[in-house]
Specification:
The protein has 828 residues and is of the alpha+beta class. It has 18 helices and 44 strands. The strands form eleven sheets. Strands 25, 26, 29, 30, 31, 32, 33, 34 and 35 form a nine-stranded mixed sheet that branches. The chain binds 2-acetamido-2-deoxy-beta-D-glucopyranose (6 copies). It catalyses: L-seryl-[protein] + ATP = O-phospho-L-seryl-[protein] + ADP + H(+); L-threonyl-[protein] + ATP = O-phospho-L-threonyl-[protein] + ADP + H(+).
């Protein structure tokens, strides 16, 4: 061997060694992956994914699979030999260079192999950064011309960029099949796949039994998932043409990790998001989500309304097939028509419009995307087995035509985001319609004789009114009780406000002993007390500088006492003696919200659903204060310590109307005396003393952020970025990682999409410009519905307060005043 040759070999070995330490990223002719050899894994270029051998759960077997390389919790996203496990560590993965197939063998026995679509010259297998294992021909210039790819054969996981659906040219069906158990990746009978009905949709199946149906794509989302909408985490789309039909999604920021997984144990398909700060996967969304998602829970021709009790209702014009079974909540027999249709009279039939629906099962359906609703109706009317029609695309005014034949199966109603469906009815249904017994419906088509048309016209108006009413009542049931709040304003007649004697109060509070002091607000100390009859009270002893006369003061207190709402702390009376002014409130067992959310232990008591209940309660309370026509109250000092929790953790706002009581409420909305708390104050209020309902909305937005994050707006400064909580939230939002804001102590929440929605709402509330902020009624509506929200603009008080405050005088003052409540630029 010549000297030169030795040097060359050494060089080669060195190069190889260095490559080994970098890990393989491709397998070609001369390379192999072996479970016990030198090259055990293949790593994608950016290091996100790794292909290799693994042992699932408590199994003894080895499998070839792909997992996230950087995630400490082993998360396998794809398995090659699901059916043929390896019982030792002798598995080897090789490339057969003549066929271009990747072949997995155990001691010479082939356990699994790919099938290349054509014969390559120089095949190479690569693990892409998307987690897709592909085989391509190095000689083939087009990078995407794969001979084979693992994304065509998903297991239980639907990764970003995968196509869920059909390649119609080859008949390839990409669907999900769950593992049998965490120890056994072999395919269970639990699957989720797109079905090529005329109007295609996806079904979740257990064997041949349907468990859940996605609903067909309606241009915006699957008909059954109005909650899936534009969001900062991922984009999604549905593609349907003559070659392909699939659903896919992609991550907005590749540093966010998200996947969809089908799980046979829980019988759900979940979207998970990796939360870096918590080092764990959290559930973002789940289907099926609730009872009404159970396939055909209510049987044929019925509607599932989750906020109704019972949830199942026959469709308009239908009655229970078996009334007895129906009334005992066995809905499986479904509903039948009040009046049978007759094919001879088909052209006399009409349609009833049902709104906010998940469209029926499309197994027997027909689709024409080129025709409009009017033609759709005519086509449906003409075929007497057509039972319903709808726009197939609901974007804008709606377009396209879908028709349903036979029984209408698996319909549900949403509070918002559902679609209109027109259901066929015999003409007599309209003539004899007894509005008292019908749920909402609009007669959209009745025919021929003008007499019938006239009746129809009248009924249409009646129907519309009725539908409005019924719709409102649905809203009501789903906690959208905005209307009722608005209307339950203060009564006209004066109420007598109980006046407590000083001695009574002193006795109740143990002579204002320090032991009974439960708080110190900006307006004075608060004491706990017990009246002689056992009633527990909270007494606010106002600091004396009210600047108001006694009568004036009493009048204001009387007014405030009339504000009654379940989310406001009830004012029981007052005490006025000598210099003393005191307000007597109902006592709240659980103290204030800040003692929960900012406390490491107690914050764990508030899971997301409790927090959401608190958020909505606060919003309702503020809305009541804002919208009460006779006494519009701007709170001006909303903060976590001013939200009290009753024994069932229902929130009650306290300290409302204090500005009024202190005689500093001015109509012009500009006060020289500023009441409020750092970190909650809207910029225009803190710097210019301009207050409005929108400054309360700002404070509410901050409060919302605190409830979600468990961090104080004021005390929180991100070390690296010198931002307050708002600034931090804004930064995370802009980076596409808003979920990093979520409180770690909230535990395993299955509501990340709802939490994200709330973060979005909070950012809309804290926008710099008051006019951009939504009003409180919109805020409440946004919170409880899954409506699509506008992109938030830059928030106010982005950085440290001092950096943002404009006027130098107020800047000075803002930076030096005390912690709790500040009073600036006193006028008098
Ligand atoms: C391991 O990888 C190196 C190149 O990275 C290659 O030279 C070597 O042959 C491989 N070993 C096996 C057993 O495939
Ligand atoms: C592994 O499986 C092979 C073939 O099925 C069998 O011959 C062998 O004994 C098994 N080895 C072990 C360790 O179970
Ligand atoms: C490659 O596959 C062909 C066809 O299956 C087979 O005849 C051949 O032996 C394989 N080559 C290797 C190196 O395994
Ligand atoms: C299915 O979900 C359960 C509960 O979350 C989990 O323990 C189990 O590991 C999951 N199964 C698989 C195959 O991942
Ligand atoms: C009505 O539609 C069904 C389903 O598409 C079809 O089978 C039937 O032939 C149609 N009937 C008429 C009279 O067009
Ligand atoms: C994505 O996240 C990274 C890392 O957190 C961040 O630096 C980057 O700005 C984000 N990209 C975009 C487009 O927001």
């Amino acid at each position: 061997m010549s000297f030169m040759r030795i040097i060359f070999l050494c060089y080669h070995i060195l190069v190889c060694l260095s490559e080994i330490s970098l890990a393989l990223d491709s397998i070609s002719q001369d390379l192999s992956l072996s479970d016990d050899g030198e090259n055990t894994t293949l790593v994608s270029k950016d290091g996100t994914f790794e292909l290799g051998f693994f042992t699932p759960g408590n199994s003894q077997k080895r499998y070839l699979g792909i997992w996230y390389r950087k995630i400490p919790v082993q998360t396998v996203v794809w398995v090659a030999n699901r059916l043929n496990p390896i019982n030792d560590s002798s598995g080897i993965l090789r490339m057969n260079s003549s066929t271009g197939d990747l072949v997995l063998t155990q001691k010479g026995t082939v356990l699994w192999s790919t099938t290349s679509s054509r014969k390559p010259e120089s095949p190479v297998a690569l693990l892409l950064d998307s987690g897709n294992l592909v085989v391509r021909d190095e000689k083939d210039a087009s990078a995407d011309a794969y001979l084979w790819q693992s994304f065509d054969y998903p297991t239980d996981t639907f990764l970003p960029e995968m196509k869920f659906g059909w390649d119609l040219r080859t008949g390839l069906h990409r669907r999900l099949t769950a593992w049998k158990s965490p120890d056994d990746p072999s395919p269970s009978d639990f699957s989720f796949g797109m079905v090529l009905n005329n109007y295609p949709e996806a079904y979740m199946m257990k064997g041949d039994q349907k468990l859940y149906r996605s609903g067909p794509w309606n241009g915006l989302h699957s008909s059954g998932s109005p909650q899936v909408k534009a969001n900062p985490i991922y984009d999604f789309k549905f593609v349907s043409n003559k070659d392909e039909l699939y659903y896919t999604y992609s991550l907005k920021n590749s540093s966010v990790i998200s996947r969809l997984v089908l799980n046979a144990t829980t019988s759900v398909r979940r979207r998970y998001v990796w939360i870096e700060s918590k080092q764990r996967w959290e559930v973002y969304t789940s289907v099926p989500l609730d009872l009404c998602d159970s396939y055909s829970l209510c049987g044929a021709n019925a509607n599932c309304v989750i906020s109704d009790s019972p949830v199942c209702q026959c469709l308009e014009g239908f009655k229970p097939k078996s009334p007895q079974a129906w009334s005992s909540m066995d809905w499986s027999h479904g509903c039948v028509r009040n009046r049978e249709l007759s094919c001879e009279n088909k052209h006399n039939d009409g349609f009833i419009k049902l709104t906010e629906l998940k469209t029926p099962d499309t197994t027997r359906s027909w689709l024409d995307q080129t025709i409009e609703l009017e033609e759709c109706r005519a086509k449906c009317l003409d075929n007497c087995s057509c039972m319903a029609y709808a726009n197939s695309d609901i974007i804008g005014q709606g377009s396209g035509c879908a028709m349903w034949f036979g029984d209408l199966i698996d319909i549900r109603q949403f509070a918002a985001g559902g679609q209109d469906v027109y259901v066929r009815m015999d003409a007599s249904e309209f003539e004899h319609q007894n509005m008292d017994h019908k749920k909402g419906g609009v007669v959209v088509a009745v025919t021929v004789s003008s007499a019938v048309a006239l009746i129809a016209g009248i009924l249409m108006i009646l129907g519309w009114c009725y539908r409005k009413k019924s719709h409102d009542s649905v809203k009501e049931r789903s906690n959208l009780s905005i209307k009722s709040n608005q209307n339950s304003g203060i009564q006209v007649d004066d109420i007598d406000l109980p006046v407590f004697g000083l001695s009574t109060i002193a006795k109740a509070t143990g002579n204002f002993t320090i032991k009974n002091k439960i708080g110190e607000g900006g307006f004075g100390p608060v004491y706990r007390g017990t009246l002689a009859d056992g009633l527990e009270i909270a007494v606010k002893r106002l600091s004396t500088s009210s600047g108001q006369g006694l009568t004036e003061f009493k009048n204001e207190v009387k007014l405030i006492a009339k504000l009654q709402h379940r989310n406001l702390v009830k004012l029981l009376g007052c005490c006025l003696e000598g210099e003393e002014k005191m307000l007597v409130y109902e006592y709240m067992l659980n103290g204030s919200l800040d003692s929960f959310i900012f406390d490491q232990q107690r914050s764990e008591l508030l899971d997301w659903s409790k927090r959401f209940n608190i958020i909505c309660g606060i919003a309702k309370g503020i809305l009541y204060l804002h919208q009460d026509s006779r006494l519009r109250i701007i709170h001006r000092d909303l903060k976590a310590s001013n939200v009290l929790l009753d024994s069932e953790l229902n929130p009650k706002i306290s300290d409302f109307g204090m500005a009024k009581i202190f005689g500093i409420d001015q109509n012009e909305g500009n006060t020289r005396r500023i009441v409020g708390t750092y970190g909650y104050m809207a910029p225009e209020y803190a710097t210019d003393g301009l207050f409005s309902v929108k400054s309360d909305v700002f404070s509410f937005g901050v409060l919302l952020m605190e409830i979600i994050s468990g961090k104080r707006s004021r005390g929180y400064y991100n070390q690296n970025h010198s931002q307050n909580l708002i600034g931090h939230a804004w930064k995370l939002w802009k980076e596409g990682k808003p979920l990093e804001l979520v409180d770690k102590s909230m535990g395993d929440s299955s509501f990340l999409s709802q939490i994200l929605h709330c973060i979005h709402v909070s950012l809309l509330c804290v926008q710099q410009n008051p006019e951009d902020r939504p009003g409180m009624s919109s805020v409440l509506l946004m919170l409880v519905s899954e409506l699509e929200l506008p992109e938030p603009k830059r928030p106010g008080f982005f950085g440290k307060y001092s950096a943002e405050a404009d006027s130098s005088t107020s800047k000075q003052q803002l930076c030096t005043t005390n912690e709790i409540t500040i009073t600036l630029l006193e006028a008098r």
